[in-house]
């Protein structure tokens, strides 16, 4: 334990401070893979049916909330670990983070393999979430102390890795899932199989035994994990390959994070770069204090809560989209531009989110060193409002006129949004150091990350709940346009049992569109409109909080030694 303590990792004279950057990046690249969660969603909701969702499969809400749980425990762990970090140093915190994050994947993999959803919540959500929080805070205050002359750039370096984690994860997740994927037993086309519906479930007579099956129509082939023929597949006979992927990732992340944690060093007390002097306390640097505010005293200032609101609402707006990015891209454009927006394109969209998230963290944090943190956040919120409001308009246009131009507009708008989403994370530690000083910035940052916990629940919950409401409304509207006799013939049950058929996933928007009257517009492109209006409203509130930011009252400053 001695080699993990803060005292043991004080750097010797002449230590190259740039060596800390790779260690910080290593840990953040691993834990940043949480942003690739949406890549797992399409597989986890088909764990039993494999080619499409079966009656006993987990619902979309069931799996999206796992991401929320992980982010909630990230914030809680960071809040608790912030003060602990100041005491024991970044190496010990990094080691515990590696154990939790890697171990969380292993426990979560067992949950997927056994069909025990609570194990996935516990493993990836709770244990893994704690690893996220510990890993997130471990390098930030360390880098700020090594780079007092470039606070924004320093935090941008570390937190850039968190944004880029999903980019690297994509190149591991997709190949691993495909390697372990096993196609379920194929029975044949629907006209060659005797199908009946029992309690909303589709059943087939196989050798005199009624066996549950799923049916893939022409509209759903492009959404299959691995494309295959349309027709009837036996439930529970294949594998989506996600549990095995979890086991592999857990081992890889543990090894990389342990190596990174043992590379940490901290500067001696009072160290500063050669030739550098702190900026004067003049009007130009009014928002950069030369004093320190104690971690407990910071909670008594209005500035802490203004920053909390700014972080919370900025994250809420972006994280909800990240949690379902692959699904959202497929639903808005997959039905109108199916030749372009296939599952691989949607997965690449997640990769691009990660890339722009990562670039934005370094770009905006470094830019804030020159234009100031307050101006940087004003750009985030003002421009963000306009971009979120543009998404419903784009979705409406592509539904009426399926042109590639609208996909390009949507793509560009969301990529800019994610540069600012990542930039908000990377710039907030430097904003904290400006307002409260550097002495307790790690602990204060940890407590501020409770805003991330709230956003981690609020964002995905808002977007998934509003989406579910929109799906229900869309299905009801479509059913009103379909001949009840045709509905009965297609699904083997009456329209009177619609709720049960939807619950068991026998009736979906895609299946209804196959029998809808010619000229019926597919409603999936508008499933997220209401969400985007709410996100723009949250950013407006955050904009006001930022514009009202002022320096901390001197009564909160610590007495100078």
Summarize the SSE layout with pairings.
Blueprint lengths: L19 H12 L9 H4 L15 H29 L1 H25 L2 H21 L2 H7 L4 H30 L5 E3 L6 E4 L2 E6 L2 E8 L14 E4 L7 H20 L33 H4 L3 H22 L1 H9 L9 H29 L1 H28 L3 H33 L4 H8 L1 H32 L2 H8 L6 H6 L5 H5 L15 H19 L14
Antiparallel strand pairs: 1-5, 2-3, 3-4, 4-5
Helix pairs in contact: 1-7, 1-8, 3-4, 3-5, 3-15, 3-16, 4-5, 4-8, 6-7, 7-8, 7-12, 7-14, 10-14, 10-16, 10-20, 11-12, 12-13, 12-14, 13-14, 13-20, 14-15
Tell me what the structure shows.
The structure is a single chain. This protein has 561 residues and is mainly α. It has one domain (18-182, 239-269, 291-482, 517-556): MFS general substrate transporter like domains (Growth Hormone, Chain: A), CATH 1.20.1250.20. 63% of the residues lie in helices and 4% in strands. A five-stranded antiparallel beta sheet has the order 1-5-4-3-2, with no helix packed on it. Strand 2 and strand 3 (201-206) form a beta hairpin. The longest helix has 33 residues, at 404-436. The radius of gyration is 25 Å and the shape is elongated. The mean pLDDT is 86.
CATH architecture annotation name? Up-down Bundle
Main CATH class: Mainly Alpha
Strand content: under 5%
Spatial extent as radius of gyration: 25 Å
Number of strands: 5
CATH H-level name... which superfamily? MFS general substrate transporter like domains
Taking the sheet with the most strands, its summary is: 5 strands, antiparallel
Distance between the termini: 32 Å
Integer average pLDDT:
86
Task: Please work out how many helical segments DSSP would assign.
Answer: 20
